Amino acid sequence: MTIPGTSEWNVRSGSNPMDTVGNLSSASGNMSTASEAVQLAMQQAGIPSDAPVMLVGHSQGGMTAANLAADAEFRGHFNVTNVMTYGSPIDSTPIPGGVNTLALQHPFDVVPRLDLGNSKPGGPGLVGWESSNGATVVTLPSPAGAGMGDVAGNHDYNAYVASVEANESSGDLAAYRNHPSTQAFITEDPSQVTSTTSGIGRKE
After folding, report:
1. Cα(61)–Cα(84) distance, integer angstroms
2. Does residue 201 fall inside a structural domain?
3. For residue range 72-101, what is the model confidence (pLDDT) as tens digits?
4. Is 198 a domain residue?
5. Is residue 172 packed enough to be buried (19+ CB in 10 Å), middle (13-18) or exposed (0-12)?
């Protein structure tokens, strides 16, 4: 299941759940409209409760994926085995250790660092805590042409796709791809692959 990122920067709640309001809901750890829409889409697709599920998302979509994987009720309906996020702040999301989680980030992408590395209030300031999940964090090389101050270029979805394609054959990316839990989602036979696109919306 692939979940898109923010598509509308609107501080007022509207019909598009992939907006700023949805970001705030996801950041708080609550089930957002997008989370509920993902669950409904999976139910309508008839995904069996024992079928392995990989949740993949960029930015807000990754936050949604992580929140769903952390939700015991959702895992009671679906067998979440894998999570992969791109440019998402998920350090504070308590994904169970049994879910094989890969968190991809660019070195100058500020979005995956918005949770301050799972820092918590303590004394006069923030105190660093260990991540709330066992995610493998991979910092990819900076995208071509994106300087340190290029917020959009470092966070761009297509830039992440290009970075993964250039580095997928080595290190932690290769290890994740070759892990037994990931093999259920990989095939060289196109006849074994189908796709469904589901629209999501919020009632105003």
Report:
1. 10
2. no
3. 999 999 999 999 999 999 999 999 999 999
4. no
5. middle
